[in-house]
Amino acid sequence: MRIIIYTGKGGVGKTSMAAATACRIAEEGKKVLIMSTDQAHSLGDSYETELGKVPVKIADNLDGLEIDTVYESEKCWGNLKEYFKKLLSMKGEEGIEMEELLVFPGLEELFSMFKILEIYEEGYYDTLIVDCAPTGETLALLKYPEKFSNLIQKVLPIKKKGVKLVGPAVEKTMKMPMPGEEVFDDIEYLMEKLEKLQNLMLNKEIVSLRVVTTPEQIVLKEAKRNVSCLYLYNYNVDAIIVNRIYPNRAMEGYFNKWMEMQEKSLCDIKESFHEIPCFYVELLDKELCGISVLKEVGETMYGESNPNDVLFQEEIYKMDSKEKTLRIYLPFAEKAELSLKQTEDELVIGIKNEVRRFFIPQAFLKEEIKGAKYEDGYLNIRF
Q1: Which pTM value belongs to this model?
Q2: Tell me: the pLDDT tens digits for 150-160?
Q3: Which of 12, 66, 234, 376 has its CA 20 to 30 A from that of 284?
């Protein structure tokens, strides 16, 4: 099964590009499911079809669904949810407001991720296309499994032991319910799912990310940051989709000055993403919605390429034991935004406000960093 995730700055047309790709792959005979994780769903509008929380047939070989986080939370929370309901119901009455309160910040992303894992494990479809929320939310969604797993692994043993020792006293004094064994069992179950999810998302033979941009400098800069951060978390970006290119015939008269700006951006895209395949979509003279239009765009966008293939793959880590050098691929990172720290067994690398921890290879565990240099898209670390 293939999983292809589309992301990009809000308003660049990633939903349309994901929808067109799904049409193209379905036309070739693959059984495709396209899913939207964006809470402001517009996937159904693209297909001019009403979509919901369960797969709906859109066309031959093509189904679609839009994530309902409250519905997904019912399936994921279990005893954890019941425990929080007890806490909340101490001060108020149960109702729909309580159900919504139980979707804490960040859990929407986690539920979306679990849905991807669930569909993959069912194995009913050949290809899953994921139309993600805009860039910031996508990055949160993709780094959530690792962040959450690390937190639970550090906190769970302490909390579990503490509840056993002082739980009854706290419950009596504070007059509030303490979590039972079944709550911790659910947390451990979540940890198992997160581990499976992390392994799936980092499998570059299965999962690809495609960044959608337009030929405008402000959008292109965010696309570069997006690609750099995705590589920081070791995800495989296998294509760049350049949408809404103005045809030459449309640039006469009033829009003439846009031609020079567009050409500059297109040159920037070719130079910046010269290793990653780029696909170009001209601005249409009609609205990009409906099956027939999406099929047309899917055909012209990919040409002879097969969008179901892994179109590009870059190994993020390169280790040279003789030279005692570790190279980490971080395209488009700005030197001024990079930070590097070494702990006992980890490298802590930051790009602006994104931070990732890498385990130091066994060969370098007893070594200290002697220097680091960023060049040609790689952070070269000498031990």
Answers
A1: 0.81
A2: 655 555 554 44
A3: 66
